[in-house]
Each structure stands twice: as C-alpha cells, then as structure tokens.
Amino acid sequence: MTRSEKRVPSTAPVRGPADPALGGISLVFPVYNESFIIEQTLRNYISELGDRIADFEVIVAEDGSTDDTKVVLERLAQELPISLYCSDERKGYQQAVIDAISHATKPWIFIVDSDYQFAAIDFWRLEPHRRTHDVILGIKSPRKDPMYRVALSWGYNVLMRHFFKVPYEDMDTGFRLIRKSVADELSPEIRHMSFFTAEFVIRAHYAGYRILQVPVRHYARKIGSTTIFFVSKLFLICFQQFAGLLRMKKELKDRGIEAPAQPRSEAAD
Ligand SMILES: Nc1nc2c(ncn2[C@@H]2O[C@H](COP(=O)(O)OP(=O)(O)O)[C@@H](O)[C@H]2O)c(=O)[nH]1
Ligand SMILES: [Mg+2]
Fold first, then answer.
1. What is the pLDDT, as a whole number, of residue 230?
2. Would 214 be classed as within a structural domain?
3. Nearest residue (CA) to ligand 1, atom 18
4. Which pLDDT tens digit goes with each residue over 21-31?
C-alpha cells in the first residue's frame, strides 16, 4: 500500500447538507487556554455546520485552563448550542479527547483543534468520504507553523511510518472525522502517546479500518501559542514520544497484532 493510495486530491468543498443517511455528527473541541480565540472558533463552526447537518451536537472539552477560557465558555454556553465540560485540573490532551468522545452521542465524531488553525468550511472536504471510510484525516497542506514545529512533526511522522509500516503523512493532525463505533472500540486502548491521533491512527490501521487522508488548508495561529510544544520542553516531549512509540511497538508485538492485508470496515464499498 503506497502513501498516494491513502490520499485523495482535495476538491472544492460543496457546503452541505451532510448526508442524513450517514448519521449525525458530534463536533468535539479540546480546549486549553484559548480565551482569545474560542468564541470566534465556536461561532464560525456552528454557523457553517449547524444548519447543514440535520443531527448535530457540539461538545466542548475544557481542561483546567489558567486564563479566562472558562468564563468565556460559560457565557457562550448561555447562547450557543454547546455541551460544555470543564475540568478543574488539566487532564492533558489525550485524556481530554478520550473523555469528550465518551460524551458524544452521534454516529460520527469530528474532532477539531479549537485555535482556528483549520477552517470550518473544510469539513465539507472530508464529509463525502464517510460513505467509504471509517477515519478521515484532514492533512495540513501546507502546514503553517514555526519551522521547528514543522521539522519535528515531519520527523515524528517518518518514525511512525518506519516503525509501524503505515502509509500516513500527517498522523498528528487536529482535524479528523471518525466513526464513533471505531473511536469507542479503540479509545480504551490508547495509552502510549500523548497526542491521541497518532496512536489512534496506528491502532485503527492495525484493526483494519479504512483510513483516508484529504488535504485541507492550515492557518498560522493568530493568537496565543502552542500549548503542547513549548520550545523549552521539546527535548522532554521528543523523549516521551519516542519511548511511547517503543512501548506501543512492543505491545503490538507481544499481542501478535499485525496489520491486516485487507481492510475490514463498517463502511460500504
Ligand atoms: N482539553 C485539552 N486541550 C488541549 C490541551 N493542550 C492543548 N489543547 C488544545 O488542543 C489544540 C491543539 O493544541 P496546540 O497547542 O494548538 O497544538 P499544535 O497546533 O499542535 O501546536 C488546541 O485547541 C488546544 O486548545 C490539554 O491539555 N487539554
Ligand atoms: Mg494549534
């Protein structure tokens, strides 16, 4: 399986309506210290998707923010159709996403970074592929982040492809549409890496689900800065990720799990 077989060219987005026969969608936002941008993100996504998806909910997973994010979200929850979950302590990105998934009630979950580095309209580039795939990744094309971040992510994806023999290019994307049943099945197993998506994609691949990559636009962070990849912590983060990668490789080997020759899928052909 080549990398290009797992990637389709992006076509101009047709702005809905989402196919109701394929089921409703839970939009999930992990949020940490986004007081300046979260209102814009929520308003933009809800106005783009709210009227075009018949069965739709928005789950906001705030996670012990130390700025005014909670205050902003509590105000917005009075006005916008969101289900708000706040935490007193920071659980971390991975656990926050896993908990948010457990709150989702629709057959599909659309998990999106809340810092508006992805445009709401690009949801429509992913949506038509629900018919044939279980996991649809919006891959950043091109990535608009600082050079060190681009280089780090490139190296991480190269390592993942090499270690796990998978064909995916952007396994840490913050824009992904996932069949809920697949997320429910695999989330309890996620434990080795701190960035949910990478570990999820590897597990979904080894479980035989159909994964597709669709290029989407990526925008520089307008306000705030990365809350995950602080330069001062890069060495520690790289070490933790590499150790996680080795642990996961060992787990798959010990359990005798190999990538299936043919995908199994709940999706139609
Ligand atoms: N719930 C939760 N969200 C987080 C945490 N850390 C970051 N986020 C959110 O995850 C998204 C991606 O984080 P960001 O720092 O922009 O990562 P980057 O784009 O990969 O540099 C943003 O929407 C953050 O608000 C966390 O510990 N918990
Ligand atoms: Mg970001």
1. 65
2. yes
3. 226
4. 999 999 999 99
